[in-house]
Amino acid sequence: MQRVRGVDTTPEMAVRRALHAHGYRFRLHDRTLMGRPDIVMKSRRTVIFIHGCFWHRHQGCRFASNPKTRQEFWQTKFRSNIARDQRAYSDLAARGWTIHVVWECEVKQGTYLQPLLTVLEQQSVSIGKSSSPAHKQES
């Protein structure tokens, strides 16, 4: 587990690049928020977690496989990861944050971007801002 990175993972970098290319600006890994979200958009009160399917047990995903050795250790580890995630989501929601989770498999398949952009666009309209980032102009 020494080689498992907590920040700047490949899926995280892909999501960050895509959001930035669409004109969104954000902060990274805010330690003042529970769960230390991967992406924080304070002006929108939105946090984005980019979760690995294996570590965070994405239901129905083929990447959420179970190791064959030390099964008791791994089940305990996975349960504690899920419980920690739920505590973070509850705390953030209680403080008025919108939470969006992007899964590693969605990034690999390229299916994460449109739902994420849709949520962000809807938020822009609901909080009275323009429906797109300021410098994003398409013809």
Q: How would you portray this structure in words?
A:
- This protein has helices at residues 10-21, 53-56, 71-94, 104-109, 113-126; strands spanning 27-28, 39-41, 46-51, 98-103.
- The chain is α+β, with helices and mostly antiparallel strands.
- It has a single domain (10-125), classed as VSR Endonuclease (Endonuclease, Chain A, 3-Layer(aba) Sandwich), CATH 3.40.960.
- The chain has a four-stranded mixed β-sheet, with helices on both faces.
- The longest helix is centred in the middle third of the chain and has 24 residues, at 71-94.
- It is globular.
What attributes characterize this protein structure?
alpha+beta; four-stranded mixed beta sheet; Restrct_endonuc-II-like; hydrolase; single chain; Endonuclease, Chain A; disordered C terminus; 43% helix; DNA repair; 139 residues
The percentage of residues in β strands lies in: 5-15%
Major sheet strand order: 1-2-3-4
Distance between the termini: 48 Å
* The CATH architecture: 3-Layer(aba) Sandwich
Secondary structure category: alpha+beta
> What's the main sheet like?
4 strands, mixed
The CATH homologous superfamily is called: VSR Endonuclease
Quick overview:
GO terms for molecular function: endonuclease activity. This protein has helices spanning 10-21, 53-56, 71-94, 104-109, 113-126, and strands spanning 27-28, 39-41, 46-51, 98-103.
